[in-house]
Amino acid sequence: MYSMSRKLNAYSVYLLMVGIDSLARSIMFTLNLIYQAEVVHLNPLQLVLVGTTLETACFLAQIPTGVIADVYSRRLSVVIGYLLTGVGFLLEGMVPTFAAVLLGNILWGIGATCIDGAQEAWVVDEVGEEHAGRIFTRGSQIGQIMGLVGIPISVALGSLRLNVPVVTGALMITLLGLVLPFIMREDGFTPTPREERNSWQSMGRQLTDARHMVSLKPMLVSIFGATLFMGLSSEGFDRLNQVHFLQDFTFPILWSLTPVIWFGIISAVGSLLGIATTELVNRRLNLNHAPSLLRALTIINSLLLISMLSFALAGNFYLALIAVWGVGVMRTASRPLYNTWVTQNSDSRVRATIFSATGMIDAIGQIGGGPAVGYIGERVSIRAALTAASLLLSPILFFFLRSFRLLHQGENTSLVGQPPEVATEIE
Matching Pfam families, A to Z (predicted)? Predict the structure, then answer.
């Protein structure tokens, strides 16, 4: 039985991690593409290649880092992840060359995979699976609030020099990595005994358990399929949407606002809308009820597809503005629901590996989809590239329909905990 003090400690540390990480990333990312384009002087193809390099690093590191988190220590994996991420962005912000940006993104990719899955698995182990949905939703809200706080900070720092926001955020993440070992407890996880720590055998055993989980839980096939098409559509859209604004629209002349300030306003309003939407979902949706969770994911991702297509085809600035806000809101609302979907369909022993597998599949999608969409943007138009990115998301609806069929067949209707026979068969 978990003590209340232990739950509160883990819950507080998780929110601290999410909050600082979100603040730092907001400071860095609000103007990051502008920094890469105007200071590092990357062309559209190089911008896409940076994203492809990042996702390749994520792909190669996902399973090994997930296994480390499951076999050795989830806390250690998270700490290493934040340190690598901070160093990577310090390199990018202090050395404005294409090679330095690539290397920095490789370090960030490895660091992100150390955090991804391990952080979620750690907090679930510490507080109990029954609290996962609400914790992820609250963490998402904290992340949105801190992200909103970071936007004006980024714009103010960027008015000095465009690399200052990148360096500032990098230092914050590095400091977080240095502090976590002193405040992050790990009481709910039992690592593999030292005499059994054969890395290759442990990796094989963890992957076997994860594969066995897929055979026992057909819902994971739907999760992995949906993740693939999320990845295929997201990379090109994320790397080219600001270029679409700059090339295909004229910013309104209001109070002498520069494009940098406009992008800050767009991000800020998007964050406020995301916070409101997540709170609405948190209040109205029963995350422990499988049909309600899947219905919400289906509706949200349908609206995401419509918003992406609307942004690609918009004929004026204001329509594009509404559409890009719609994309951000739907993504923000979907994220905690998706994490809950994964959590409640994976056994504790292999949960970090399952999360890492979804990260790897997402990276495969982005590696495949990003350059293809970028090529269309280079050869045809940015509008055509964004349309293609939007259409790549559409097959995700098939996997949600498949999940509904599985529920109707009686698989995991409660979505809370795992059937006893699953844990027995894995062992």
Answer: MFS_1 (PF07690)
Q: What SS3 state is found at 391?
A: helix
Interatomic CA distance for residues 227 and 62, integer angstroms: 14
Break the chain down into helix, strand, coil percent, rounded to 5.
80, 0, 20
pLDDT in tens, 202-221: 556 656 666 666 676 778 88
Mean pLDDT confidence for 272-295? 79
Per-residue pLDDT reduced to its tens digit, 289-317: 778 888 889 999 999 999 999 999 998 89
Nearest-angstrom CA–CA distance, 198 and 194: 9
Q: Compare 6 and 27 and report the one with higher pLDDT.
A: 27
